[in-house]
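Work Package 3 (structural annotation) set out to generate three-dimensional models for the target panel prioritized at the project kickoff. During this period the team completed the workflow that converts sequence records into discrete structure tokens, so that structures can be stored uniformly alongside our sequence database. As a representative example, we reproduce one entry of 117 residues exactly as it appears in the project archive.
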Amino acid sequence: MVPDAVRNYLSQAHRTLSAPDASVVMSASSIDAMLKDNNLSEGSLYTRIDQAVTNGILTQKMADWAHRVRLDANNPRHADASTPHMTADDAKRAFDFANALTEYLYLLPSRMPPEAQ
């Protein structure tokens, strides 16, 4: 079952795809909520992503993508002078990853037959 916080952030990320800055930030928030739901609440999102690899929750490639979303979300959050706004493609890429991570962490395991768990 997908936790309410994750579902809420992911839903907002989807609903705001036409507002890329907001969507990317919501995608990053959904990733953060997933890591916190997996008992990774200490430190920064950067630290939690790296700890998720150490704990076997994410592969290194998944962590690399999570870091990309994290960095993209920082641009509008901090009004970055060189790249203050995200594009529609950035928002779609961030949402697609967050959605796939939800599938990987919550939906696929719930479909596993009991004898395989």
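Residues 88-111 form the longest helix (24 residues).
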